Amino acid sequence: MTATWTNWSGSVECRPAQQLEPASEEEVADAVRSAARENRTVRVWGSGHSFVPLCASDDVLVSLDRVAGIESVDAEQGEATILAGSKLHDLGEPLARHGLALENQGDVDVQSLAGAVSTGTHGTGRALGSLSTQVVALRMITGNGTLLEVTPADDDLLAASRVSLGALGVLTAIRLRLVPAYRLHERVWQEPIDTCLSRLDERIAATRHYEFFWYPRTGLAHGKALEPTDAAPDDMRGVEGERIDHSYNVFPTVRENRFNEMEYALPADEGPECFAAIRELMRTRHADVTWPVEYRTVAADGIDLSPACGRPTVAISIHQAAQLEHRAFFADAEPIFLAHGGRPHWGKMHSLRAPDLARLYPRWDHFCRVRDRLDPGGTFLNKHLRGLFVNRG
User: Fold this and answer.
1) Is the pTM here over 0.85, yes or no?
2) Is the pLDDT of residue 317 over 90?
3) Contact, 325 vs 360, CB < 8 A?
4) Are strands 60-63 and 179-180 parallel, antiparallel or unpaired?
């Protein structure tokens, strides 16, 4: 038995029998083959930023920190193949040297590329999809230790593997569709929440990246709008609430305080009503929660397990400090999200299991068939994932 592994927020821990840090695809494949022969479970962790036990394993726990870096860049095609263990915050500058950038990203950038893709991590923007929608090809080690290359010609398999929770195999390399490098003009401001809501549709429609955080104790909304610009960073120097910088410097926000989080993706037209219900819940039953509620938008896609599959989406996130009790608040909020057609973020807290999820995802059965084919022995299914994919009814 090795040392205890704990995720970022402290909500998950495990004591794997073996912790491995392979340095190549070949070593990853060897680890999977060995585990499969011994009927052991393999899980991979990146930065530990999932709040649920996606990565937990009492058998074999693998870090891909040594399978990292940019493997190749095709600047003319606007694509790059990136090794799966690479951290998002390590990609901006190297890609910029090739004149390229990620089309969109979230406001946390410490995750591994494989982890962010596998859970459908996203930023905000009604015309912009999750990071997974930028995947054009990938490589993975399947349940029998075989290297599988998924290409753009494999539409069916690509639709399953772009968001896979690590349940199809161990991702080792991901080819991303990129855009020309760009700068962003950021504006941030505060206003009463009712003012924010009265202008919500207008701002979402008019802004490439718009989001707000509502702070329940103060009643204020903190708005944020990002727009591409050709202006130089110096143009905004000294202007309060505004800045201009490379996109990869503007998107992320440092998270100094640890927390737990629940996020549900809703049909876009359900967003305002769902937010109002969450707001009322916090006023009447959880007035002690001071952490903000976040409101973002995501474009529809056709990825099997994407929370935005088949519909324009609003993502609403609730939070609580890691050292404080969150379970009662999250348990009361979850039925509200579900009543508005919500689908859970795969890396954040939820209580759903296979029968619930099958009703929410139109391509659920397709993903499960692919999963059964690529990992028939269940090498990549820990206890949490068995609750999602086994006995699915």
Assistant:
1) yes
2) yes
3) no
4) unpaired
